[in-house]
TrEMBL record:
Residue ranges of domain VOC in the record: 7-132
Protein name, entry field: VOC domain-containing protein
SUPFAM superfamilies: Glyoxalase/Bleomycin resistance protein/Dihydroxybiphenyl dioxygenase (SSF54593)
Entries under Gene3D superfamilies matching the protein: 2,3-Dihydroxybiphenyl 1,2-Dioxygenase, domain 1
Pfam families: Ble-like_N
């Protein structure tokens, strides 16, 4: 394996309206790789190693070995994106709400080392946004901290 190789993640999700979903994800500040966009889907670039493929239900069904379910009715997945700070978590949630997303109302707060919130996109897919100070988390989770 080349030392230049970066493993990537391609998340594929079914959406009911490509144009609406494109507008939503653009509102979050994400870009698109137009080489992989057509009437059946769009390639949302989250980072240089994370790509979200938003696909029509028909196109998604062509890839999936299982029936397409409604993300508004059942959990299909939880997509968690890391953020650089607590403020960045809140800022992305604000962008999601301004772009047509919904606040799930779920906030996770663990001491001074972890903070997270979540939103649903217009189709109901849940995205978690999480900030964590790993050093503080490790200190809090250390065996000696548990016995204190």
């Amino acid at each position: 394996m080349s030392t230049d190789y970066k493993q990537m993640i391609f998340l594929n999700i079914p959406v009911s309206d490509i144009a609406r979903s494109r507008a939503f994800y653009a509102g979050l500040g994400f870009t698109f790789d137009e080489r992989f966009c057509d009437e059946g889907g769009a390639c949302v670039v989250i980072s240089d190693t994370i790509t979200l493929m938003i696909l029509t239900h028909e196109k998604f069904a062509g890839f999936s070995p299982r029936p397409v379910s409604s993300p508004a009715e059942s959990a299909q997945h939880l997509i968690c994106l890391s953020s650089e700070s607590r403020a960045a978590v809140d800022a992305l949630l604000d962008k999601a709400l301004a772009s047509g997303g919904t606040d799930t109302g779920k906030t996770i707060e663990m001491g001074d080392y972890m903070y997270g919130r979540s939103f649903s996109d217009p189709d109901g897919h849940v995205f978690e946004i999480m900030w964590m100070d790993v050093d503080r988390a490790m200190a809090a989770w250390a065996p000696e901290a548990a016995s204190a």
